[in-house]
Amino acid sequence: MKACVIEKPLHYKIEDLPIPQPKPDEVLLRVTTAGICTNDVRDYKGSKYTYPRIGGHEYAGIVERLGTDVDTSFFKPGQKVVNYIIEECGMCYSCKHNAENLCDAAESGKVFYNENGISGYMGYAEYVCVKARHLYHYSDSVSNEEIAFTEPLACVINSINKTNIRMGDDVVIIGGGVMGLLHVLCAKKQGAYVIVSETDAKRREIALKMGADKVIDPIHTDPVEEVKKLTGQRGAQVVYNTTAIPTVASQAIEMVAKSGTVNMFSSMHPNDPILVDAGRLHSQEIKVTGTVSPTECSFAQAVDCIEKGIIDVKPLIDKVFDYKDVTEAMEYAARPDTYKVMLKFSD
Fold first, then answer.
1. Which of 24, 99, 114, 256 is most exposed by smallest CB count within 10 Å?
2. Same domain membership, residue 328 and residue 243
3. Per DSSP, what are the bridge partners of residue 27?
């Protein structure tokens, strides 16, 4: 099979590798389409994880072959499926307390560090073996590109679930990229009044088209003061920071209302400490939390939302490249003005 292997930063190679053989509890998938995540771009530019790597955790697939122990009443060759990509152990404290997305074993597994071989999620290859228990069905009517959007949407649904939006709440979303706009779509479904803070004028226009009620230009105005003006000086009940900038994380906390919630959705780059008014957190009962990756529940919800047309991800699909053009695709995805970029492996 062909695979996009990043041998070192800025150097991809299309390699011929053996087709993996499914273990008894696994399914061999033929990958159709795989999305490029910000983390894939970081791997391309140079990350702390080991090389060589085969990235790709936002992929759609078709069942090719079943392991000997897989229940054929659930899966059959030819079905469209998507894979929950966290290899949770099911035994650690996090797994036993409904936080399998924080599994200790997954964090230390070969997805990130493999000194004696290839690391990565393996979605940027023509075939991949996955646990049958991690698969979710899609109907044939759903496009491969939409299916490949399941994982990012599931991350956002996890974020929404942790913050308990109530109908009529003022919600601020900082950042108008793919993940920010997915927050817009989901927050509107919860009945929120959505304010988007975004530096790029074109992205502000798109945020309005996607359902945002108001947009803020944080370059030419003070975003904290603008949020207060738009909310009767109260601040927003919920604030999502989808940017990687520590100073913006500080602003997110400043613009939240009494008893409100701030969710740090994005990782920080660089991960510099921020100053927080702890007295205000205490006296105004403000909650600051974070979310990372999807839970199994939010993944199932994402499948339902895409399958049933509740969330339309198609407007966020920017460009689909042939997998052989992976370097060009990564360079394009790294641009600040693009949305979701994908690699096509098969139909």
1. 24
2. no
3. 66, 130
Residue 108 has pLDDT above 90, yes or no: no
Closest CA relative to residue 344, chosen from 161, 148, 179: 148
Q: Whole domain around residue 110: which residue ranges?
A: 2-152+294-344
Average pLDDT, the chain: 97
**Residue 157 forms part of a structural domain:** no
In a domain, 158, yes or no: no
CA 217 to CA 263: how far, in whole Å? 21
Domain match, 176 and 204 both: yes
299 with 286, same domain: the answer is no
pTM exceeds 0.90 for this model: yes
